[in-house]
Specification:
183 residues; alpha/beta; Rossmann fold; 4 helices; 8 strands; 22% helix; globular
């Protein structure tokens, strides 16, 4: 696959963007996909895309009231999950896609406002979000699976899909990037 670059304007929901990405990425076999999402949250990414997924493995430090229910849930920090998976402590031997959407948007709000944010995950403060992406990348490389990420900038990897999404973040115009890296 040649690199695909999509530009989207504000108003397209994240779950629609993920569906577009998965349709492009798995155009040859749109059903029966195994996904590991390392920052699952509510599962909003999968509102539409769930129809393509045979097995959805979710990892998060807390269990929330899901919008889309995963098949398997691990309640732990993604770095702990990745270490256990790489060490063979978990039976994670394959995936078609590894997903990470670290809670980076809270970083833009500043530490003075952190106490007012509902359901703030501790790893947002404990480690820069990009380190969470690189932990996810280690698992994706190990499994030889593409990594789908959403972040405030494009990371340095071999992209096969880039989505540049114009948004209004906290009253400021900006961009959110979705990328798919292939190893």
């Amino acid at each position: 696959m040649n690199e695909l670059v999509l530009r989207l304007r504000q108003g397209v929901a994240s779950w629609k963007i993920v569906d577009i990405i998965m349709s492009e990425l798995f155009s040859d076999r749109i059903e029966g996909i195994k996904v590991i999402d390392l920052t699952y949250g509510l599962g909003r990414f999968y509102r539409i895309a769930r129809r393509h997924i045979k097995q959805l493995i979710a990892v998060d430090i807390q269990r929330l009231d899901w919008e889309v229910c995963p098949d398997i849930f691990y309640q732990m920090d993604l770095r702990v999950f990745v270490k256990k998976a790489l060490d063979g402590e978990l039976n994670i031997d394959s995936a078609d896609l590894v997903v990470v959407d670290p809670p980076w948007s809270v970083e833009k709000r500043g530490t003075d406002k952190l106490s007012s944010i509902k359901n703030l995950q501790h790893y947002t403060i404990a480690a820069p979000s990009q380190s969470l992406i690189w932990s996810a990348a280690a698992l994706a490389k190990h499994l030889q699976a593409p990594l789908l990420y959403r972040y405030k900038e494009l990371i340095n990897c071999n992209h096969i899909i880039k989505v540049i999404y114009d948004v209004n973040i906290f009253g400021n115009k900006g961009k959110v990037f979705y990328g798919v890296c292939k190893w």
